Amino acid sequence: MTDYPTLHMMIEGERVTAGSRRTFDVVNPVSGDTLAELPLADGADLDRALDAAQRGFGRWRYTPAAERARVLHGAAALIRERAEALARTATMEQGKPLAEAKLECMAVAAWFDFAAGECQRLYGRELVRPVGQRSVVRWEPVGPVAAFAPWNFPLANPGRKLGAAVAAGCSIILKSAEETPASALGVLQALYDAGLPSDVAQAVFGVPDEVSRHLLSSSVIRKLSFTGSTMVGKHLAKLAADNMIRTTMELGGHGPVLVFGDADIDKALATAASGKTRNAGQVCVSPTRFIVEENVFERFRDGMAERLAATRVGNGLDKDTQMGPMANARRPDAIGKFVADAKDRGARLATGGERIGNQGFFFKPTVLSEVPLDAEVMNEEPFGPLALVNPYAGEDAMIAEANRLNYGLAAFAWTSDVQRQRRIADQLEAGMVGINTHAIAGPDAPFQGVQWSGHGSEDGPEGVKACMVVKAVHEA
Ligand code: NAD
């Protein structure tokens, strides 16, 4: 592939290439072939990035809000201009259809514009005090941020973390996933080209555990922002605790979808089927457990199987493709194991259930039904194109199943009963709830989980404030 960029890290404004460093092979998920070699940081690289981040924070925290906003608006415009090339890079290294990668570019641009507006809205407050005294509560940037972003949204995950830190007045060291480095570098480059000083945001890659241990043991880092699995999130939270580093954790989910007999079933099916195949199911808010009222169960199961079986799976660069390969070799293996385990325990396979071909990482969109609750996939996040459809008798049983797991990221419900919509919104234990919609993310809306799905928000005003601390100043 000739149009895949040459890879490097970005430390103190220098493009750091492999030299004698260890490297990681970035792979095209369509073929399994190597696209390029990525340099991995050693301890000296990370120390250099930490020193620069300290300096970058010293200058950026006092940079006027208008200038921070100018940089973010500028980067948003550049990302829109470069969307075609950025999206192509993302598809080449991650696999998702080009149209989805372009939407990701637009989401990053929209977030940068929103975060730019927030720069001017980081208000504090003044307390009521007797004449001659003054007490103010103000927001300040927390300090240098260490951010770890995964491979499923190779543009948007880095974009969320960079935008929040830059708007708040922090510096940031970003370690995006080694599987999808070029997308992250493209987003960072747009910020530089819009005028961001190179010590304010840097990009390193490495052996994840080495990088996170090194950065989190440094007294420079004041904030950790992680997106990824609950297991890794718990591990990083423990490391962060040693230095009392603040954390934002955007972790796994197990998206319950309650479908009631009074819902618009065709609309629910169309929305849920495209939601399930989006990014080959590798989305933390993907609809996963379909909790269907028994009077519409068969119709819903069969409709879902029919729609998923008709999905056009192929190379994300082909314009007809609706679902690309999975992002890396681990994913089809994991999905295959979930399917085998569920079938062994008595689940019915309604469609799919196997890999496609022996090249790349393709897996058929799959529907399992009547899945026993002790099947692994009913308890662990599948992170793939796998829909689990089970029948339930009535609202209480459906809500109980939705809240059964420790995950609480996104939950969805389909019903035309307005009173029920309100009861359900109250009772679902989740950071985000979609009623008759799966559109739950936007630049102005906080994105977060509860329980094992994490804590702290990204996006929205809350996402910028997550990179800040309050200080109360009292004068007499
Ligand atoms: P993983 O759990 O090892 O890694 C998940 C992410 O965390 C990757 O980006 C990885 O680079 C990073 N990571 C891993 N160990 C780390 C460490 N010690 N320090 C810093 N970063 C570290 O495995 P995976 O195979 O990449 O993904 C598997 C599971 O992760 C999926 O099944 C899914 O549940 C979850 N995941 C969630 C999201 C999300 O958006 N919440 C994104 C990607 C993966």
From TrEMBL:
What Gene Ontology molecular-function terms does this entry list?
succinate-semialdehyde dehydrogenase (NAD+) activity
Alphabetic keyword roster: Oxidoreductase
Name the domain of life. Answer: Bacteria
Name a Pfam family for this protein. Answer: Aldedh
GO biological process: one example = gamma-aminobutyric acid catabolic process
Keyword Oxidoreductase in the entry? The reply is yes
- Annotated ranges, domain Aldehyde dehydrogenase: 20-473
Which PANTHER family does the protein's record reference?
Answer: SUCCINATE-SEMIALDEHYDE DEHYDROGENASE, MITOCHONDRIAL (PTHR43353:SF5)
Family assignment from sequence similarity: Belongs to the aldehyde dehydrogenase family.
| Annotated protein name in UniProt | Aldehyde dehydrogenase
Organism this protein belongs to: Aurantiacibacter luteus
